[in-house]
Amino acid sequence: MNNSYQEEQFPVLPIEEWEDTMNTFHLFLQVIGKIRLKLFPKRNHWWHVTLYISTRGITTGPIPYEDMSFEMEFDLIEHVLIIRTSTDQNRNIELKGLSVSQFYKKVFSELSDIGISTKIVAVPYDTPFSTEPFETDDKHSSYNEKYVNRYWRILVQMNSIFETYRGTFTGKCSPSQFFWHHKDLSLIFYSGRSVELWEGANPVDTEAYSHELIAFGFWPGDENVREPAFYASVYPEPEGLTDEPLSPEKAFWSPDGGGMALLMYNDARSTPDPKQAIVEFMESVYQAGAKKANWDKKAFQLPV
After folding, report:
1. Residue 294 — left, alpha, or beta (φ > 0 → left; ψ -120 to 50 → alpha)?
2. Do residue 121 and residue 198 come from a single domain?
3. What share of the chain is helix, strand, coil (3-state, %, to 5)?
4. Same domain, 151 and 296
5. What does DSSP assign to residue 254?
6. Among 208, 252, 213, 209, which Cα is nearest to 230's?
7. Which of 207, 245, 257, 288 has the most CB atoms in a 10 Å sphere around its CB?
8. Are residues 203 and 111 in the same domain?
9. Alpha carbons 232 and 252: distance in angstroms, whole number
10. How far apart are alpha carbons 49 and 51 in whole angstroms?
11. What pTM, to 2 d.p., does this model score?
């Protein structure tokens, strides 16, 4: 695999060069994600709130509404939010130059114009960098098309990896889905066994962690982790998990615990075959977690 391929498919994404844009786009995602949360029928493990990677960006997929359905898609090639309905109504909102406040107001204005009425809890969720209500947030307005597009291109690669890898597992498995609250793309395997949660678990965690799982994901970094990373976690963390080996060589178990393993993005993209390195990482965590948590690996293995 040559360097030009790596640059195209796994571009550099230094958080310091697009953090303001990343935070603005994160809040844009939360506005749209909260609309899906409000209107989409409930699913287990909060699967009804997630977004999905599309051939042009990030989408809600079809959302049922009265006697029609509608979809909202961030086109990250043209950098517009597209709202489409099954009744052949279309609206476009240019992303560059908008503050969060302007974006929020435009989205709800366009929805109202095509006959969709809804209300959301219009404040950021779990975002340490901002608690300002969407309607009054004029601070976050940075939008660098180049870096948003790079982020999406990485998500495209990860989505393809996840869609392929999930085919090797015959147990209960999530879709390849984008969680807008932490802006990470995730894939989750389940053993089928329920677990008792920790004392004081909130309703979100109670639903998300009701069953044993091994999760895989990619996220671009944040105020604490200052570079993009691939992660994998085993919940609940079985005894002896972190004694198990990981692959490739630069993957490691997080010193913070929680059954979390990490492979930093730049370490993966610097290998001769980044995709293979990512799959090796995922497989090594799956083998470690399934072994230590006594999953029936044979039952979950796709017949040859």
Report:
1. left
2. no
3. 40, 20, 40
4. yes
5. -
6. 252
7. 288
8. no
9. 10
10. 7
11. 0.95
In this structure, are 223 and 240 located in the same domain? yes
Whether a cis peptide bond, with omega within 30° of 0, leads into 248 is yes
- DSSP symbol at 173: B
Each residue of 94-131: pLDDT tens digit? 999 999 999 999 999 999 999 999 999 999 999 999 99
- Per-residue pLDDT reduced to its tens digit, 38-85: 999 999 999 999 999 999 999 999 999 999 999 999 999 999 999 999
Same domain, 200 and 100: no
120 lies in the same domain as 228: no
Structural domain span for residue 109: 3-136
pLDDT score recorded for residue 164? 97
Statement to judge: residues 196 and 271 lie in one domain: yes
**What would the two tokens of residue 164 be?**
């392929």
DSSP code of 64? E
Judge if 192 and 55 occupy the same domain. Answer: no
Looking up tokens 């691939």 gives: 230
Distance CA 254, CA 88 (A): 49
Q: What is the per-residue burial (b if ≥16 Cβ within 10 Å, else e) of 33-53?
A: bbbbbebbeeeebbeebbbbb
Low-confidence ranges of the chain (pLDDT < 50): 1-2, 4-5
Q: Which two tokens stand for residue 296?
A: 């029936």
